[in-house]
């Protein structure tokens, strides 16, 4: 497993982010998803984030990304939602007809940590610390 690093630490921080359209409006097609991905890739470097995987359904997107320990995730997510909403509505004016009060994203989101092993493996590893094998 290759770890990321900075001056004083090693880390491997993966996150799974799910963003849902306001009232689950079915407005995301392949073109809009591709544009949303481009916007993500454009701002990710400002927050030490690296996109790993992207996919969508008609009313939500799934994003797998890596981050640094100093990344302010809530600030990044809010910046991304704000920028992508503004740009999508500007570039795809027809989409406004399908939205509620011009909101693109739901206020809420789902952010999950993920890793290379299960919680059970980590628990067992911690339990074994200090014991002779």
From TrEMBL:
InterPro entries: Transposase_17, Transposase_17_sf. Transmembrane segments: none annotated. One of its GO terms (biological process) is DNA transposition. One of its GO terms (molecular function) is DNA binding. Residues 10-129 form the Transposase IS200-like domain. Gene3D superfamilies: Transposase IS200-like. NCBIfam families: transpos_IS200 (NF033573). PANTHER family: TRANSPOSASE FOR INSERTION SEQUENCE ELEMENT IS200 (PTHR33360), TRANSPOSASE IS200-LIKE PROTEIN (PTHR33360:SF4). This is ISCco1, transposase orfA.
């Amino acid at each position: 497993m290759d770890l990321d690093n900075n001056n004083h630490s090693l880390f491997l921080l993966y996150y799974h982010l799910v963003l849902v359209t306001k009232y689950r409006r079915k407005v995301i097609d392949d073109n809009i998803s591709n544009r949303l991905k481009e916007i993500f890739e454009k701002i990710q470097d400002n927050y030490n984030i690296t996109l790993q995987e992207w996919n969508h359904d008609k009313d939500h997107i799934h994003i797998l990304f890596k981050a640094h320990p100093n990344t302010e995730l809530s600030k990044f997510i809010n910046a991304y939602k704000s920028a992508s909403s503004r740009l999508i509505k500007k570039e795809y004016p027809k989409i406004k007809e399908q939205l509620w009060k011009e909101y693109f994203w739901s206020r809420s989101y789902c952010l999950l940590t993920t890793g290379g092993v299960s919680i059970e493996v980590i628990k067992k590893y911690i339990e074994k610390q200090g014991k002779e094998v």
